[in-house]
Amino acid sequence: MIGRLNHVAIVVPDLAAATAVYRDTLGATVSPEEDQPEHGVRTVFIELPNTKVELLGVLGDNSPIAAFLERNPSGGIHHICYEVPDIMEARDQLTKEGARVLGDGEPKIGAHGKPVLFLHPKDFCGTLVELEEA
Amino acid sequence: MIGRLNHVAIVVPDLAAATAVYRDTLGATVSPEEDQPEHGVRTVFIELPNTKVELLGVLGDNSPIAAFLERNPSGGIHHICYEVPDIMEARDQLTKEGARVLGDGEPKIGAHGKPVLFLHPKDFCGTLVELEEA
């Protein structure tokens, strides 16, 4: 079912400082900052030859990553995103096998303009898994 | 400096159960279990089209991941590994810029038989970063 690792998302307390670490210290190619108001985050993508790292900063007062930052004030790896060919087929197969989809179970449009779902960490080795339709 | 994302490592409380989740529920290709006694872990690699996920289980009494599992009993993402062309050059450049290398600062031979270093999470957005010579 799962295909490419689309990205690893890292929540950071200071997006500009984190971007500088990746750009200047680690010498990576970084995208411009982009506000994602419908997701309550500001993003920077680290472009690696085979995949991406998504740096996530808080945007607004109701950011879904605020609680994570309270628990992890220095930041940390927040989720891992795998591509699937068909998000509805993936959802139906996973729920049939007893895995829990977060929210109302309907795909949302993610940061890349494609349908995404999040799976319950307890069902996937303690890690928050995002599925994105490739 | 950094190149490909070599792998994302996930520490799990039950390696066989985690392997089954990736193989059976997520439909991924998984490697056989392999003991890494010199690292105190047992590994399974999830082979994705563009990179790998490394599942890490405890091996022996002094496993370096035991404390992580105590803090995260369901498991969780432990580190992220980037490839570098020259590990000594990478180390020297990073330490010159003030980044901290864990341990004695000398590369060790990692799970893939290549020289690796670990960088201090506080210097890298709260994430444990492994560098592996490509």
TrEMBL record, chains A, B:
One of its GO terms (molecular function) is methylmalonyl-CoA epimerase activity. InterPro entries: Glyas_Bleomycin-R_OHBP_Dase, MeMalonyl-CoA_epimerase, MMCE/EMCE_epimerase, VOC_core. Keywords: Cobalt, Isomerase, Metal-binding. Its EC number is 5.1.99.1. Coiled coil: none annotated. Gene3D superfamilies: 2,3-Dihydroxybiphenyl 1,2-Dioxygenase, domain 1. Residues 4-134 form the VOC domain. It catalyses: (R)-methylmalonyl-CoA = (S)-methylmalonyl-CoA. Signal peptide: none annotated. Pfam families: Glyoxalase_4. CDD domains: MMCE (cd07249). SUPFAM superfamilies: Glyoxalase/Bleomycin resistance protein/Dihydroxybiphenyl dioxygenase (SSF54593). GO terms for biological process: L-methylmalonyl-CoA metabolic process. The keyword 4Fe-4S does not apply. Belongs to the methylmalonyl-CoA epimerase family. PANTHER family: METHYLMALONYL-COA EPIMERASE, METHYLMALONYL-COA EPIMERASE, MITOCHONDRIAL. This is methylmalonyl-CoA epimerase.
